[in-house]
Amino acid sequence: MKVMPWLNRKIVDPLKLILRRGAEPKQLAFSAALGITLGVFPICGVTVFLCGVAIALLGNRCHAPSVMLTNFIATPIELSLVIPFLRFGEALTGGSHLPLTSDALKKVLTGQASREVLLSILRALLGWFVAAPLILALLYVMFLPITKYLIYKFGSHPSSPKKQFITRTEVKLKARNT
């Protein structure tokens, strides 16, 4: 399978569709930051559930497709940040340094994890909980100018600054009222 067609189909095309639908830059920046922040949660396999809960709780304050798209994009980042979150959690608690061996991973995967391994998982979660607000804020500040530019470049906007842009829904509502 070629990488570029896959990237276009899974990431670029959905992103362009999101931009063309006219979301607000602040909402998109927040949603993208939220999707990545939740997407790097150090327990693999639960990030989609976390995003679903966040979308349900935040309602229209976030843009659900953007949260889910950036959550998908964050998957490789999630895998690379498990150990830094673990080490950060160990530093926060003063806990012992868990040696990361194939035997420890095997015990976790087979359900034979020792108390030490389970404590390390809790420390990784603590590391994420402490870092998540900072990650969210930094990503939002980074994404805001990017989303403004992308909406300007790819979004649906009027061809003339003097013309007011009217959506299809508004046209349908006006047609019904006349």
Automatic annotation (TrEMBL):
It comes from the Eukaryota. The chain crosses the membrane at residues 28-58, 125-146. Keywords: Membrane, Transmembrane, Transmembrane helix. Residues 17-149 form the DUF2062 domain. This is DUF2062 domain-containing protein.
